[in-house]
Amino acid sequence: MKIGLFFGSFNPIHHGHLMIAQAVLNQTDVDQIWFVVSPQNPHKQSKTLLHEFDRLDLVDRAIADNYQFKSSDIEFHLSKPSYTIHTLTHLTEKFPNDSFRLILGGDNLEQFKSWKNYNQILDYFGLYVYPRGELTQSDLWQHPKVTRIEAPLLQISATYIRQCVQHGQSIKYLVPDSVEERIQSKKFYI
Questions:
Q1: Helices 177-186 and 52-63 sit at what angle, rounded to 10 degrees?
Q2: CA 171 to CA 180: how far, in whole Å?
Q3: What is the pLDDT of residues 55-65, one digit of tens each?
Q4: What tens digit of pLDDT does each residue of 119-153 get?
Q5: What does the alpha-carbon distance between residue 82 and residue 56 come to, in Å, rounded to a whole number?
Q6: Which residues, at least 6 apart from 32, have a Cβ–Cβ distance to it below 8 Å?
Q7: Which helix (H) or strand (E) holds 20?
Q8: How far apart are CA 72 and CA 163, in angstroms?
């Protein structure tokens, strides 16, 4: 099976994430998209993250109606901080008959060379990259293992959603209804 791996903190998952995942399904030959919930991103402060199991639950709620979307807690069981190359190595060992490719925003492509073992990730796995309105163009756009995905450019961010919640503002239409209901019932991000 060909699997697109969409890594992120998903703090919380929102319609922008889901639209990108669907665009990858529509434009590539992947069979499934796995939303890999990261417990601690080496480039982000962990104090801003909702508990990893709560974020996984929000992902599960958001993707429940799409059989081609799966959630993954694989990084919960690996040493922290989690590095993408370690996760990819672990997944390859655990699922030797499957192939994996990363889904990445163009803004992250700009910083991709700072990732641990980025050359191995490119050479052995490759990237599906969706532009996010970045001002500069990385030379990696020309790499043979980088495939450009055309996805709607939405200015939705998890930070904005968390700020709306903190200010008592509605997040309707930013996240799936099931995610909104869970955030409200559990009083997340308040």
A1: 150
A2: 7
A3: 999 999 999 99
A4: 999 999 999 999 877 656 788 989 999 999 998 88
A5: 16
A6: 1, 2, 3, 4, 68, 69, 70
A7: helix 15-27
A8: 26
